[in-house]
Amino acid sequence: MDFSFTEDQLSIQAIARDFAQKRIAPVAAELDAKGEFPLDNIREMGQLGLMGIEVPHEYGGAGMDPVGYVLAMIEIAAADAATSTVMSVNNSLFCNGILKHGTEEQKQKYVRAIAQGEAIGAYALTEPQSGSDASAMHTRATKNADGDWVINGKKSWITSGPVCRYIVLFAITTPGIGAKGVSAFIIDTQKPGFHAGKTEPKLGIRASATCEIEFNDYVCSKDDLLGQEGKGFSIAMGVLDAGRIGIASQAVGIARAAYEATLQWSRDRKAFGHPIGSFQMTQAKIADMKCKLDAATLLTLRAAWAKGHAEKNGGRFGTEASVAKLVASEAAMWIAHQAVQIHGGMGYSKEMPLERYFRDAKITEIYEGTSEIQRIVIARNETGLR
């Protein structure tokens, strides 16, 4: 097995690392405290190719593969998880879905704008009454006399909802038949009938704007149906497989930042006349942190490789994506917890970034499929039983 990276993969990683360290890390704590969206940084990331890493050049992207995307995501997340959340949604959920299921016109119109940082994309599946049970949505789309779609309903927990221009939306087009009655649409938020609610006051990733959105007789052109009518739920689930690799990468970035901060602290901090890193209990924690971080990193890279292989040769990568997301998110939460513990009182203080890593890590166990959902997906795929 070859663990080396290509020149292109190392290049996008270096670009992401340089930008993360020079532009993102210095303002991360301030933006977190204010809950302020990093709009300028997001635009610059688009210009650097970080908002459309796997988007082909003909649609304005960097033309990279899934492994390159993971390497770049880790670097951004290590500097600021909130910024990496926006990056993940734009790459994995918005651009990926349209590239896979959209028409040529849709790709040119919507993917290019997002990949180049000219606009921000979002993904709207969750509703106030349907989280993990996504097929239980209430948002409706009905055809009018012109063949266009009139949409009514609410979606919740929409990342970038307050600032996005375009949204991939899922709505019921044929009631009463469950998931087979769901279709996907591309929404322009500047058209009448769209309303973004208040920004949610979140525990972590506070600089990423999240809100509820509402549609009141919003008219979506028939040309903006994504894929075939009635195939929306399968589109949503396929897109989430890719999205889980993005969140696994985010979790690895958070975990790495917490681990590296802890290594430095264990060397510098002294107690009873010795660096605390020389104490066996601290060493045991560091060893376990290292093992979990490496396992999460390798599983995430495996999932990215599997995605790239599936795209070239056919096949699926859902199990690998769920394994990576489950292991990486739980590793991030555990490592951040141990990092705070090793830092003691300073780990609990906002003077250091450990408490932010701790708050940010938690969401990786929840969105794009909770840890419980990942275990169900993995077990069903392994056993073949439902």
From TrEMBL:
Acyl-CoA oxidase/dehydrogenase middle domain mapped to chain residues: 122-217
> What residues does the Acyl-CoA dehydrogenase/oxidase C-terminal domain cover?
230-381
Q: Which UniProt keywords apply?
A: FAD, Flavoprotein, Oxidoreductase
Q: Which PROSITE patterns match?
A: ACYL_COA_DH_1, ACYL_COA_DH_2
Enzyme Commission no: 1.3.8.1
Locate the Acyl-CoA dehydrogenase/oxidase N-terminal domain: which residues? 6-118
Q: Which Gene3D superfamilies does this one have?
A: Acyl-CoA dehydrogenase/oxidase, N-terminal domain (1.10.540.10), Butyryl-CoA Dehydrogenase, subunit A, domain 2 (2.40.110.10), Butyryl-CoA Dehydrogenase, subunit A, domain 3 (1.20.140.10)
Q: What is this protein called?
A: Short-chain specific acyl-CoA dehydrogenase, mitochondrial
Please give the organism: Dorcoceras hygrometricum
